[in-house]
Amino acid sequence: MINIAIDGPAGAGKSTISRRAAAALGYIYIDTGALYRTIGLVALRAKTELTDADAIAALLTDALTVELRFVGGEQHMFLNGEDVSDAIRTPEASLAASAVSAVPAVRAYLFDLQKKMAQENNCIMDGRDIGTVVLPDAQVKIFLTASPEARAKRRYDELCGKGMDVKYDGVLADMIQRDYNDSHRAIAPLKPAQDAVLLDTSDNTLEESVALVIETIKSHL
Ligand code: DC
Predict the structure, then answer these.
(1) Which residues are bridge partners to 30 per DSSP?
(2) Which of 48, 109, 116, 209 ranks highest by number of CB atoms within 10 Å?
(3) What is the pLDDT of residue 209?
(4) What average pLDDT does the segment 149-175 reach?
(5) Is the pLDDT of residue 36 over 90?
(6) DSSP letters spanning 117-151
(7) For residue 210, which of 73, 28, 31, 6 has the smallest C-alpha distance?
(8) Residue 83, SS3?
(9) Which ranges constitute the DSSP H helices of the chain?
(10) Which residues line ligand 1 (CB under 6 A)?
């Protein structure tokens, strides 16, 4: 199977770019952040203290089912049979995802699911540790980044477009907080794989970034 790993910080455009590149190349697109967001939602709903790793780990019981299904070609997340694809996109779910993603038991819980998807499909998988931990043998690894301000502006526009009432300063502060959490955690911190191609999209339009990623993938296969 052809596996492409795309990692990078929040708001670098990973999901939109990966989705479009996968469509152009005929691969499926797997958004692993959605898996962490789903566990984040579990923690929010259970009113778990987000700094309590043991309490978060205790949420991962046999009674919990987290499924990734494709509905009309798009990835949807199901939590105990409920489609939570929209519920995992709130700012609260973002911060909860960041918190639960630092818990080793959560990463172990989601590892097999990610591995299996990659073994069974030609895919572009995006996340934070895909090139370093989940798919160290991926044929192509890309580390996609952009300045915090450029990323916050994109996320702000996206949330406003969805009718959410957010402030740019708040989005930027959340972004910086998540960057810090994601790159300073002890387990699977956000960092480029040694053999990753680094792409900075701060000054690129979306179309330019998509073209650059497709070109990079093609030239490395
Ligand atoms: O890409 P995203 O913003 O949807 O990711 C949500 C959170 O999950 C983010 O704070 C980092 C974490 N995450 C992770 O630790 N490992 C991944 N492979 C993907 C996401």
Answers:
(1) 125
(2) 209
(3) 96
(4) 92
(5) yes
(6) HHHHS-EEEEESSIIIII-TT-SEEEEEE--HHHH
(7) 6
(8) strand
(9) 14-25, 33-45, 53-57, 91-100, 104-120, 148-161, 168-184, 206-220
(10) 10, 32-33, 36-37, 94, 97-98, 101, 127-130, 178, 182
